[in-house]
Amino acid sequence: xxxxxxxLPTSPGFWRSPLRGTWFTSVLGLVLxxxxxVLFVTGLVSYAxxxxxxxxxxxxxxxxxILGFYLFSWPTDPYWLxxxxxxxxxxxxxxxxxxxxxxxxxxxxxxxxxxxxxxLAHALERISLLLLVGGGLFEFTTGVLNVQLDYVFPGSFYxxxxxxxxxFFAAFLAHAALKTPTALRAVRHLRRDEGELAPARPDAPxxxxxxxxxxxxxxSLLLLVxxAGQSIGGALRRTALLAPHGGADPGSGPNGFQINKTAAYxxxxxxxxGGDAWRLTVTGRDGRTVRLSRADLLxxxxxxxxxxxxxxxxxxxxxxxxxxxxxRDLAALVGHDGDPPDVLVESIQLHGxxxxxxxxxxxxxxxxxLLALTVNGEDLSPDHGYPARVIVPAAPGVLNTxxxxxxxxxxx
Length: 412
Hints:
Blueprint: H1 22-50, H2 81-95, H3 97-107, H4 120-147, H5 157-188, H6 209-225, H7 229-232, H8 270-273, E1 280-283, E2 289-292, H9 294-299, E3 303-307, E4 320-326, H10 327-333, E5 343-347, E6 356-359, H11 361-365, E7 370-375, E8 378-379, E9 389-391, E10 404-409
Parallel strand pairs: 1-10
Antiparallel strand pairs: 1-2, 3-4, 4-7, 5-6, 5-10, 7-8, 7-9
Helix pairs in contact: 1-2, 1-3, 1-5, 2-6, 3-6, 4-5
């Protein structure tokens, strides 16, 4: 068969939908231009929150090189910062899925055009398009799987999503630089029929392009209202039908709020956390070490803070009322009486990532940063980290280590 045979996708006659055209694709492209830029920025922010310019303790991408140029000490104010940025990242990513799929559908004929390259510039454009399409599908797919807690790709989500984001966004920038002027002209002048994307022999229309855009927008709106509640909380949590942490709060009472992993999943044995079995080891300046029972911790000055838990999957809790010992007071016990240093926190959990997590000095120094012993007036439940857990304002949930066994203060 010849490549211009209308039965083959390489033939312009194969693609006959009257919806395709410069105007339709341009509208979708401009929406993605804004949305993907916000996604990329909030994704970088999330990475900075996980690894706030520390030693490699929290670093899931040790070979990042110059890609970590922007890392900074993650702030503790406003205390809901990570809840906002990661909730926006995940909710917007899910909401943009119909727009992305519609955009890919609108340009798919270009992937089959022959010859593959008419010039060096055309070859570079085709390569950037392949990276754009492949990178976009990879980033959105891995992101959705991680949100659904059903991650199936080989290797860790963090480096794959991080490096994939840089490859995708580089191709996205190149494509945007080439196509944004055309898209703006097409939308400004309402040129709905011109352009190489329009079919050579269109079929009879069954819906207008404007109607198709309304359909895409309605699908995005549906995903928005069935996802956003996991970040907003309150009564809206029940609308988060597509989010694993949507719906009603698990259980009831003071400990009846969302968790990511249970004590059973983490391999926590009640025999190692109850009674006299558990001790917290705190090490500081010149190797000074103290070992504290839960009763010892309760005898220290107790402080309270109302803070949420916000996770990389986009879900967050409402503010919970935590009470325990300030991290900076624990630092003072082992010789750090002035400005407290960084701290390495280690858990007794047997399974799962971030069994060891580091916090920056500014996070330790915040008076709301606690080694919490109770929540909402009641002892922590095993699933919420009994006998003691860290809670820090604006920090990602995985850095609020549960089932803490050891804390080492000093430069990391």
